[in-house]
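Weekly structure sync, notes
Attendees: PL, DS, HV (note-taker this week)

Item 1: glutamine--tRNA ligase
DS walked through the input record. Source organism listed as Salix viminalis. Sequence as pasted into the shared doc:
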Amino acid sequence: MEVKEEESSGTPLELFLKIGLDERTARNTIANNKVTNNLTAVIHEAGVTEGCNRTIGNLLYTVATKYPANAVIHRPTLLGYIVSTKIKTPAQLEAAFSFLSSTASESFELKEFEEACGVGVDVSEEDIEQAVNEVFKQNKGSILELRYRINVGDLFGHVRKRLPWADPRIVKVNGTAHNTRVLDCNCDHGHGIAAKMCLCLGTCLHLEPRGQYFWKLKLIDAKLYELLGERTAADNEKPSKQKKEKPAKVEDKKVADENPVQPAEDLNPFLIFPNPEENFKVHTEVFFSNRPVLRCCNTKEVLDKHLKRTSGKVYTRFPPEPNGYLHIGHAKAMFVSFGLAKERGGCCYLRYDDTNPEAEKKEYIDHIEEIVEWMGWKPFKITYTSDYFQELYELAVELIRRGHAYVDHQTPEEIKEYREKKMDSPWRDRPISESLELFEEMRRGMIEEGKATLRMKQDMQSDNGYDYAHCIVDSLEDITHSLCTLEFETRRASYYWLLHVLDLYQPYVWEYSRLNVTNTVMSKRKLNFLVTNKHVDGWDDPRLMTLAGLKRRGVTSTAINAFVRGIGITRSDCSTIRLERLEYHIREELNRTAPRTMVVLQPLKVVITNLESGMVMDLDAKKWPDASTEDSSAFYKVAFSRVVYIEQSDFRMKDSKDYYGLAPGKSVLLRYAFPIKCTEVVLDDDKSIVEIRAEYDPSKKTKPKGVIHWVAGPSREVDPLSIEVRLFDKLFNSENPAELEDWLADVNPQSRVVISGAYAVPSLRDAAVGDRFQFERLGYFVVDKDSTPERLVFNRTVTLRDNYSKSGK
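Item 1 (cont.): predicted structure, written out as tokens:
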């Protein structure tokens, strides 16, 4: 059935009040543009711009907020049933949603729809009373045992299962939930109006539908009172908590771990996306100020042709602009598009959106291909938007012929002004033939640059922005899922409008939240400013959240992908992910893959006085904490000699209970070696510590609490390896520097600290660029590209401390 659309009547607030919304709900609704647009459209479709009763209004509000998007074409039919009160309860409306969602844009029989929604089904009080009696009979044992502690909701559910279309207000008392007026009665309880009988639990509820007074006893509560009588003190007591029995010990640990609980971050994030063959549903509604709503979807013929061309496979695309280096936000975009294609056995294009030649460089193109491969993704094909120039031109001509585009002569400033004022261009209604002629002159270079622009004839009252090339190339490449971040949601209407008026295949568009990380900036403009003004050392500076910077810092692509997967693919656009969460995934990865070694950043000389000069002991040190003693490759040799170096921070002149390092008269254990005890401290004229003298315990009977790392001094003509270490920290002090007016003033001056005199064990001498290690007690480090054969340079990837897992964030 069709519902006649009426002319607009008043402001949205007036419309919402007319359908019975209270003022607070109406004003809260207006604060949400999407719901406001939906509810306004629903009110007009329903033909109730002059108002309706509150029951109908509440159902209309539910339609505006919960109606299945894939069945918008049938919404007028549902509204007709609501206005005519054939559908009058929330249960019927939910059933209608379920039916229409499964039907989508396909036609259906009204008889089947009515049966599914309980249209015309009248449930009498006698029917309800009989169902309640049956439920009580079936559950009598439990009711007598639990008395008033029985879960009334379960009983109510059993009744609803038998009579899904019954009025829930009759079935169950809920003094805070019903919407009817409570009147006084004259019964024996002294409430006012006389009643034929009273089985209430101290309360008589008299309902007032259709202006007529009568009472309806709430049957479940009444039946409980009839069966159990008055409440006792015991009925009001809270049940005592019983201790849970400890499960018996599981002898076979392997069996216990066969079905572990799956962490949330391991769930498949791609389950939310539909299959290509489901792309016949309504994608979006395009609202116009002067004509009916346009509901965009693929016709069966268009979809069938698309599925034949693609063999039903998933086709996605990753479309970066080659005007800068990719950052961690692009890692999420790659994960979503390449990941979906891989998970469904489909294909993903790497498409360069080369529509702004002035900002593009081959350096950026080469970088993007390198990073895509490093991140573990393999493009199905590499394309450029410019590859489709001829098709884009021909479709522009067709757009003019169909009356949906025109040649405009406004300046950019005039276009901006007219857009803000929502005014049509004075050239908008020029003849089609004239626009075609001018467009041909533009193609041939006969019109001066900037003196003419081809513009689409979209509704100037709309706030939507638009692209031309993006959506058309998506269609030409048979993309099944066009995935992008939420800031592009405003272009959804124009995306589908353009494909609709050109009769082109329409991909499924899904917008997801962009990835924001604390203590950094993500905009290309700000990143470019930092690089070009030498605030950082290039696009791959390890402090930046560019993927080149993270790679140089030693972060693995698998850790980044695990981080992105853990965040999930949602539409929540109000959160910023803490940097600690990324660091957690980095540590998880490097803890498994980075071999251990020992490096001293700020060396302090220790002389072992009871070890003979020239004596050297070769000791085994572990590359892996759980290394088997039988696996020789899991160990490396360290030379223990008369001189060793420890961290300056591992020595104090004054000891304390909470300090486990070395102090005068105190012992510590040198990792993989022996306990040593400080016997003397040598100071210079400035009272600075020059060296420590200590004795070692060759028997290892001393059991100190503290364990420290160390590096051997010169022995066998082999000196400790001198290296440079760069300690990187957060680039900005504030969590969201982009919001600051002077964001550059927030740069952390300690974000890069260079230590040039660190000592490492000699076994690191052969480390190559990109090799990762855990420096024991210090953190994870990687060999930097600035290294030379004479001197290695290490970047700190992340410290050992893990705040994320401890806080559970």
